[in-house]
Amino acid sequence: MPTISFVSPKGGVGKTTAAVLLATEIARRGKAVTVIDADPNKPISTWARLPGRPENLRVVSEVHEDTIIDEIERAEAEAPFVVIDLEGTASLMVGYAISRCDLVIVPSQGSQLDAKEAAKAIRLIQQQEKAFKRSIPYAVLLTRTSAAIKPRSLRHVQDELEHHGVELFKVQIIEREAFRALFSFGGGVAGLDPKEVSGLEAAAANARAFAGEVISRLLSSGAPARPAEVA
Q1: Where are the domains of the chain?
Q2: pLDDT above 70: residue 99
Q3: If you write DSSP's letter for every residue of the chain in order, what string do you get?
Q4: I need a surface site. Which of 3, 32, 130, 154 has the fewest CB within 10 A?
């Protein structure tokens, strides 16, 4: 079953938000998912204690450098999908986790500074590819972008990444109040109250499109996911 990790050396780029969006969308489609919260700040573990966490979504929080591989293997045996929220530093734990992934997602905001930080994550992935002599599919996910405005700085970052052969998600995670609200009210976007949070329909569509592209990338890379499992 596919294992997907989120890694970024820079905080505040929407890494954990994207991980929660993917995990809750998979769960909404009726498939069990285990989330390994390997971020020292434990943001997903905090979110999971709020109301609304899907019953088919399990969170593992007590992971360390010497247990991460065992936890991944245990999660892969128990659930069709495994999502890992990794810490930002280039630690052995991060390297071990990346080496076991079917897809690594590198969230980045659309600035030159964030692009440089994303490049650090990409170099770490490439180092693991060499160390373990296997291809590890990865792509940069642009986050916290505007639905209405595409700044020149964002276009420049996109062009530069593509020029260097870096895969980019077609879908971007738009800056939305609904995504911030997940960490206040819990659950997924579909469970939020439209009386309390605006723009839910657009946010839900964004989450569905993101999860759909993740599944498409897994299938195209030959990862162990079948279309019937994610319909």
Answers
A1: 3-230
A2: yes
A3: --EEEE--SSTTSSHHHHHHHHHHHHHHTT--EEEEEESTT-HHHHHHTSTT--TTEEEE----TTTHHHHHHHHHHH-SEEEEEE-SS--HHHHHHHHT-SEEEEEE-SSHHHHHHHHHHHHHHHHHHHHHTS---EEEEEEEE-SS---HHHHHHHHHHHHTT--B-SS-EE--HHHHHHHHH-S-GGGS-TTTSS-HHHHHHHHHHHHHHHHHHHHHTT-S--HHHH-
A4: 130
Show the tokens assigned to 9.
């050396």
CATH homologous superfamily of 3-230 equals P-loop containing nucleotide triphosphate hydrolases (3.40.50.300)
Whole-model pTM over 0.85? yes
In tens, the pLDDT along 56-83 reads 999 999 899 999 999 999 999 999 999 9
